[in-house]
Amino acid sequence: MNYDQTLEKLTIILSDQYSEAELMLKAEMAMKINNIKKERNAVILGHNYMEPALFHTVPDFTGDSLGLSRNAAETDKDVIVFCGVEFMAETAKILSPEKTVLVPSNKAGCSLASSITAADVRKLKSQFPGVPVVTYINTYADVKAETDICCTSGNAKEVVESLNSDAVIFLPDEYLAGNVAKETGKHIIFPSKNKVNNNDLDVQMIGWHGKCEVHDQFSVEDIENVRASHPDVFVLAHPECKPEVVDASDFSGSTTEIIHYIKNNNLQKYLLLTECAMGDNIQAENPNREMLRLCAVRCPYMNQIQLKDIYDALKLNQYEITIPEEIRLKAYKSVERMLQIG
Ligand code: CIZ
Ligand code: SF4
User: Fold this and answer.
1) CA 255 to ligand 1 centroid distance, Å
2) Residue 215 DSSP label
3) Phi then psi for 223, rounded to 5 degrees?
4) The pTM is what?
5) Ligand 2 pocket: which residues have CB below 6 Å?
6) Of 217, 229, 292, 297, which residue has the fewest beta carbons closer than 10 angstroms?
7) Over the stretch 68-114, which tens digit does the pLDDT of each residue have?
8) Which domains, and CATH codes, for the chain?
C-alpha cells in the first residue's frame, strides 16, 4: 500500500480514535517501515493481538504464532520481525534458524510461558516416567525441547488423541488442559495442587498451574451480564479461558478458528473473550457487525508494540532472538512432530 492507500485505510478504521494529524503520522511511519523493510530484505509478521493501526498496515502476514512462523519460513527473506511476544518469535527462529529474528519490544513476556521452566518439565518426567509430554506452543524453546510434542489451542485435542496413550502430561496451561480433558473424556490432576498417588489408575492427564493473565479474568458472570442486555449475542471464548467459561460460551477455538468462524457465519452480534485488540481488528473488517469485547482486560506484553517499534527494530537490529542450536534442534522435533499429525 502506498501512503494515500494507507491513510485512507487508517481513516476508515480509526478516525473515531485519532485525529487526522495523528493518522497522517502513522501512515508516514508505515512508509518508513516499508522502505527499511526492503533495505533489510525483511518480512513483517503481525499477530492477531496487535493493535489495529499496526495490524492493518505493515505486516506481510497476519495470524497466529504457528501460522506466522510457517509463513516466514517459506520466504527467502533474511530478517523476520515478529510483532508478538518472545515465545512466538522463538517459534519462528526454531523453524528458520538461518534468518535473523527480531521481536520489536524488550518487554514481550507472557504469564503462561513464564509459568514453567525446563527443570520443572524434567521433574515431572521423573515423577511420571514414560508418560508422553505435550506442550502448548505458548512456552519457551527450552521447555519445548524437553517435550515429546507441541500443540496449539486449535489442535490440542487431536495431538493428545494421536498419542494413543492412557496417560498424558499436558503443559503448562491449566485451563487449556482442563478444556482438553473434558473434550477427550480424560480425568485430570495437578501435581502442584493435588496429592499424587502414581498408582491411581484414574489419572489420565497431568496438568500444570500456568495461566494466561488475560483469559484468566473472564468469568461466567461476564457472559451472563452481556447475554442479559444482548439476548442475540453469540459468545466466542478462547480455550485459555476457564472450562466453565468455555462451557457457558457458544464456540471455543484458537484465534484463527474464531476469525474463521466469524467469516463463515452471518451472525450480527458477537462477544469475543480474548485479547481485545483482536476484536478491534475484526470489527475494523466487519463494520456492519457488532463485536462486543471486554477491553478492561488487556495483555500488557502484546500492547507494548507500536508502529515506531518496528522501525526501531529494523534500524537498530533489536531485539534479536537467539536459541542454542542443541535446544533448537530438540524444540524443532517437538514442533515437527505436531506438524506431522496435520
Ligand atoms: O499461538 C497463538 O498465536 C496464540 C497465543 C493464540 C491463538 O489461539 O492463536
Ligand atoms: Fe501470554 Fe496471555 Fe498475553 Fe497471550 S494474551 S501473550 S497468553 S499473557
Assistant:
1) 6
2) G
3) -65, -45
4) 0.96
5) 85, 110-112, 138, 212-214, 275, 299, 301-302
6) 229
7) 999 999 999 999 999 999 999 999 999 999 999 999 999 999 999 99
8) 3-110+302-316 (3.40.50.10800), 113-210 (3.40.50.10800), 215-292 (3.40.50.10800)
